[in-house]
Amino acid sequence: MRDIYLEDIPLDEARARLLNAANPQPLPGESVPLSEALGRVTAEPIFAAISSPHYHSSAMDGYAVQAQATTGATETRPLRLALGTQAQPVNTGDPLPAGTNAVIMIEDVQQVADDAIEIRAPVVPYQHVRLMGEDMVATELVLPANHRIRPVDLGAMAGCGHAQASVRRRPRVIIIPTGSELIAPTERPAPGQIVEYNSLMLRAQVIESGGAADVTAIVPDDRDRLRTAIQAALAEQPDLLLVLSGSSAGSRDFTASIVRELGELLVHGVAVRPGHPVIIGAIGSVPLIGVPGYPVSAALTGELFVQPLLARWLGLDATVEDQPRTQAITTRKLTSPTGDDDFVRVTLARVGERLLAAPLNRGAGVITSLVRADGLALILRFSEGVDAGQAVEVRLYHSLRTIERTVAVVGSHDPMIDLLAQFLAVRYPGDRLTSAGVGSVGGLVALRRQEAHIAGSHLLDTETGEYNFSYVAKYLPGIAVRLITFAHREQGFYVQPGNPHGVHNFGDLPRVRFVNRQRGAGTRVLLDYELGQRGIAPESIAGYEREENTHLAVAAAVASGMADCGMGVRSGALALGLEFVAIGWERYDLVIPHAHLDHPGVQHVIALLDDAEFRAALGAQPGYDTRETGTIQLDT
Amino acid sequence: MRDIYLEDIPLDEARARLLNAANPQPLPGESVPLSEALGRVTAEPIFAAISSPHYHSSAMDGYAVQAQATTGATETRPLRLALGTQAQPVNTGDPLPAGTNAVIMIEDVQQVADDAIEIRAPVVPYQHVRLMGEDMVATELVLPANHRIRPVDLGAMAGCGHAQASVRRRPRVIIIPTGSELIAPTERPAPGQIVEYNSLMLRAQVIESGGAADVTAIVPDDRDRLRTAIQAALAEQPDLLLVLSGSSAGSRDFTASIVRELGELLVHGVAVRPGHPVIIGAIGSVPLIGVPGYPVSAALTGELFVQPLLARWLGLDATVEDQPRTQAITTRKLTSPTGDDDFVRVTLARVGERLLAAPLNRGAGVITSLVRADGLALILRFSEGVDAGQAVEVRLYHSLRTIERTVAVVGSHDPMIDLLAQFLAVRYPGDRLTSAGVGSVGGLVALRRQEAHIAGSHLLDTETGEYNFSYVAKYLPGIAVRLITFAHREQGFYVQPGNPHGVHNFGDLPRVRFVNRQRGAGTRVLLDYELGQRGIAPESIAGYEREENTHLAVAAAVASGMADCGMGVRSGALALGLEFVAIGWERYDLVIPHAHLDHPGVQHVIALLDDAEFRAALGAQPGYDTRETGTIQLDT
């Protein structure tokens, strides 16, 4: 009965219950030497212990004088001052000698005798004098409490007489990974085993937020052992306990039940995607968060629950809501399952005038969607979602400057676009290339919609035997474009090692379980053309209807035994240790609208196609030929 | 002769010479465990070593089946599947058993016998299946080179089979502080001694930028000893050597001459303020930067020269130019000495619709101007400067969000405004209060110009004996304001301990050297009123014309012996150990235009005036009375 009120709690309510249970007051201070205080947070206001400067000092190299004694000096009637009595030599930083109140720069003085100088203009009191307390006066507030210490703050603290700083103790977090299927990253996983890395991510999030984290050994799915591990962790009096669920319901359920036994279960499931099965509880005074096993859920739980709590303990006011945001135009319709706030990972790029948000894979298991994300778009629960072409608010992971320097490549997926991205990042630091595989036709359509700068395309015109020209004319009518060859690529069949089903040509396909590419992919066009030429009906091929979006996904289907054969470029077979049955070579071009030719990143991409080192690296890949790489095939 | 071409080099040219000499190629990689890789920079692209998932796995708890075998199941005609053969129980993450290609969620199944289940709908192939490589396929690019590693990146690397990462070696910097007048922060300085903290700041800047820094002992102004120290540092083969000049010309000149002797001097003076006497050279293959002694110059040299160089070594493209920027309206005219790029520190606040930039003290010795700065406005060399009310570009040190939450207080300076700032930061994390002392009248004028949210005022109407009302009517005509009392304060004379000149009342002032407050300050109004009442001519008071802008500056002038007497609130005397001769009590009000009453920070300030803890802290200060604190004196 009670569980009904614990499940599917809205995000704000769940966070409120956590903060209420944790009651996160700023932690007490500890004294550290200034050399260790960078990045720590002041626990108390810092008042000046001494003034700075702590005496009136000369601001120049020259002579200290009494200003009143210089009256009447002119160019034509210089005034003579006796050294040692009326004028005293001082260097910058020297205290003003008693009886003086101004400094004359050495350049403005003539030494006329061993014991005398001449000046040609009077000076006003306090000229070239740094007055005591000019920077800080004793007792003055220099830094408030709850301030993250920067390099200049260290200088100011030292300058006003402090050698130590009172900084907030780091909140201490103990992380318990659970799940019998989990192994450490140093081990090689067998089927059914999963590399446990959520603890690595959560620990890093804690450190990034100014906390300290200890990770225990992995606890298998055994209620008693998990209970023992939780009690052992509590004995160390952490500020926060994180129990990282494995992927199965078992480890989640044990956590909730143990929290209920030892303390209070406050939330069991939050209405947010990804991240649903979050558990929140308190055992004694220690708050506990049960973190879901799917990595995207785990990372977002860290951002939404753990990091804001640490910020409170440090006296900082940083929640995920405080990240910089921007408005962007979504390239696809985004909806949210009713009742859940949905955090959609997006990549961002400026194409022409518009800042575009392209949604990434929404699976909670796809950690690369977070790695590749430039930000999170929040689709609110009970909202009707956002249509393609509408504005959506994005919480930024990267600076807008990085995003402005991003080249967006779409279209046919080629693994060597990664190689291009890597060269771009190294050769032009700050430049960035994002790529999305949507097939060759999809890429041209994206260019027409102004959703990308460059499309990769290898579309065979089955009537002329030419690549790409007629498709560009069809899909980009009236748009001036340049077609530059990226590479020639070898196409073929992916089969298991030893080619157990004896696939040698298209006529063999009806005998095997096939995995296909999606409609609009260049490889699909090639397949359909070849089947048509040979009069082979697609319906005769088992698996023809199963579509994958990339060469590697096709290769993965074959490697796992889900299919016996697929079609793609040679590099896909190499990636997964498959055998490759060559069919022939095709030309893969980059299609670039003239409107984007002056984008610096696009220019760098074009320059790389003529770069000897990049061409050598590309040509060294099996299945790639660079004989026409960089050649302009068309410029309309 | 040669020096002519080394002096006053423009900033861009000086930086080009440094980069040319340092030739900063990205440093080689070193392998570290993932647990130590947070924040480091990838030295090589990271490719997936294994696919993730590395097998087809169940995405749900339920039963694995062959999809084709479920055809025909309906609500009315459920299909029975034999357990163990046709349906096999799986947990989330389990590998799909051989012969199955879909998973039915446990919720959608009825167990009808020990060895059988029933389903009421068919399933499609791959339903609730995470396909091998869904996240990453072996050989796929996961992270490019030159990427700063974040928590999610650690997860992705571990997930695709890496336990170590190849990250760029940290650039190693040796810092040599020089100057006979310098002492460590742990020592208490005597007059003429200066606490050396530039090494603390520069080291922190190096660490912040991902480098490692060693600081040597302070080297006195002795050419041979400095030469020995430089050679000893070179023997350790650092990537960069920083020689921090003391304040005198001596230490600067030694550095330049030693660089000339041992290597090549490339720059001796850069046309940038603050920061003029920057030295750049190279000894063998090691670049050397001679950092000016004034702390603001030193910190800016770190930002403009050191940090960009470190970024290059790490393969990152971060220079000070890449910081986020904003446009703001300057509140004062800003000009630059011809020939120098001038970096003016400013505070920022949003007042009404406008984002305002208020310039801070431009002295190179005022480190607090950097501590308090929200950003830098660059006034270009040879430009005509920027008039008050014009837009200026500001490189941001803080997020715009912090700035949006800033309450700008101007007007009469009271040290207890610091106390208010401190309570505000603690009680309302994220709120911030900046204050600028421009005198009571100056504060009212700033309110009229919409340059601040709140003005502090203690202006005595000498005809009515009332405080502030008539001045508000005069300086803020037609503007609805609320006047709330901050505190009553005790005014008096600051004199040296023991009151050696016997100052007891205004009649004693003509006998002593006085230091005054600026025109428009409430204390100045009070002084002029009292002098007029007594028929004392201002000209009869020595030092009447010497004006300081704050109570503490007046107190400092007396404490240092520059003056015998000044006038101010009691707290100023306490700050510097002066004797205080009480004159009487005055009312200090906060003046708040109605237009700013809905600003959340302003509301928090008003709430604090009624906060028992704040009132107690304020009332405990000698010279403050809180009997009317929080009382609304006027609401027009």
Descriptive report:
Two copies of one chain form a homodimer. Helix content of chain A is 26%, strand content 28%. In chain A, helix 3 runs parallel beside helix 6 (295-313). In chain A, the strands form nine sheets. In chain A, strands 27, 28, 29, 30, 31, 32, 33, 34, 35 and 36 form a ten-stranded mixed β-sheet that branches. A six-stranded mixed β-sheet of chain A has the order 16-13-17-21-20-18, sandwiched between helices. The first copy, chain A, starts with 10 loop residues before the first helix and ends with a strand. The model of chain A has no long low-confidence stretch (mean pLDDT 90). Chain A is an alpha/beta fold. The first copy, chain A, has five domains: 2-25 and 170-320, 3-Layer(aba) Sandwich (Molybdenum Cofactor Biosythetic Enzyme, Chain A); 29-52 and 134-168, Alpha-Beta Complex (Molybdopterin biosynthesis moea protein, domain 2); 57-130, Molybdopterin biosynthesis moea protein, domain 3 (Molybdopterin biosynthesis moeA protein, domain 3, Beta Complex); 325-398, Beta Barrel (Beta-clip), CATH 2.40.340; 433-635, D-Maltodextrin-Binding Protein, domain 2, CATH 3.40.190. The longest helix of chain A is centred in the middle third of the chain and has 19 residues, at 295-313. Chain A is flat, with a radius of gyration of 34 Å. At the A-B interface, strand 11, helix 2, strand 15, helix 3 and helix 6 of A face strand 11, helix 2, strand 15, helix 3 and helix 6 of B.
